[in-house]
Amino acid sequence: MFYSHQNNDFWDRPIVFSPKRIVRVLTICVLVTLSLFTVLWIAPGRRPSRTLAPLRDKAADSTSHSSSQDNSLKELQYPSTESTNLKEPSYSSSKSSDLEEYPHSRESSDLKEASYPEEKSVSKEKTKSSHNLASLADSGTQATFTKTPYPPLPPGDDEEYISICMAVKNQHVDLLEWFPHYYYHHGIRRFYVMDDGSQPPISILPDYGIPRSAITFVYIPRTPIEERPEPMHHHIYGDMCIKDYGKRHTWMGFLDADEFLEMRNGQTLMQWLHDWEHNDTVGAVAAQWLTHNSAGLLTRPEGGARKNFDKCVVNDPNGENKHVKMFVRTELFQQVNNVHHIGTKDGYMEVGEHGDPTGPWRNPVTHEKWALHHYGIKSRQEFIEKQDRGNANALAKPIPQSLWEGVENMDEVDCKELTDYYP
Questions:
Q1: Which residues pair with 255 in a beta bridge?
Q2: Residue 18 — φ and ψ, nearest 5°?
Q3: Quick count: other Cβ atoms within 10 Å of Cβ 316?
Q4: Which of 141, 96, 139 is nearest to 119 (CA)?
Q5: What is the pTM of this model?
Q6: Nearest-CA neighbor of 162 among 263, 243, 240, 271?
Q7: What is the bridge-based pairing of β-strands 191-195 and 162-168?
Q8: Per residue in 166-202, pLDDT tens?
Q9: Which of 32, 241, 331, 366 is such that its CA lies 20 to 30 A from the CA of 218?
């Protein structure tokens, strides 16, 4: 036997350890251990927990859903650039982006005049892959710059004095460069994206490099030719952008995803248009095209259009640069003559940068105050994609091969004004 030290204190009384007692204690310990093991491990294996099973199912569904999203977005990923690092911000819901199905008539639209409604799901006619991606449209990201912006950025147009309306189809990748250009370099805070049946919808991508609250998406389901208003651009610009949103802004520009504005007169876009607003005879101001060629590229380059397509065609009275695009005072809008010419009310005129009256073409061609860089053909690959997209006007002729040949065969000059823009 083993004894502890003896004294008169209760706690120091001898503890007797016998073999039988030791065996009993060890047996009890083993039984308790086996019981705990049975309760905590074996039983749940035979009968799944009511609490954990739904969580496991939800996790499996989430993994499957994430994989589906990754596969569906694979073709829309933009080539690597050094533009931005992105993080998740928080936005106020007071001016969240609109996401509407627009059924080709203003009367049946449920768009609100006084506020920007919360996002709603798009048309039921979306493809299965689009449905899987729809949840991504609720998020948005804002850029934090990895280097000093160039040129210095103007103040943001927080009052939405100027807005831009565009008709677009299947140009998700192009917009990843286009939105930051106008948001940061020209301070635009309101974009109306009239999505002409893109698959998946333009709104499906969660991040275009700017706050999502600055973009109003309107989805136009593809319908039979006989049901589409013609010309479709006239309907989009006049019956949708101007009539439904025009009163919210003083100016509205009508641009495409391959057009990038450059200010050359030392003024910001807002200052430039403020000056024209004070002219009692002017209803619209035209920016002249500066058309870029392919720069010899056959496939879509990394880094975007501005950095890579650095050759422009020379100014020619009969060449591509004679075309203009317009910013219009919304209260003076009268009609859409064509995509290059927005007519204004009687007593007002549409002018070029020197105050000279202009229509869709302007001669002599000048780019002294501002220039609208037009990346109309880009690489050979991108031009073929443009032909496949077709024209918004269903009855219009297909985009001809002669457009490519006409631009490529013109004399060229260096055109590097936008190559160093960041972001």
A1: none
A2: -105, 155
A3: 13
A4: 96
A5: 0.71
A6: 271
A7: parallel
A8: 999 999 999 999 999 999 999 999 999 999 999 999 9
A9: 331
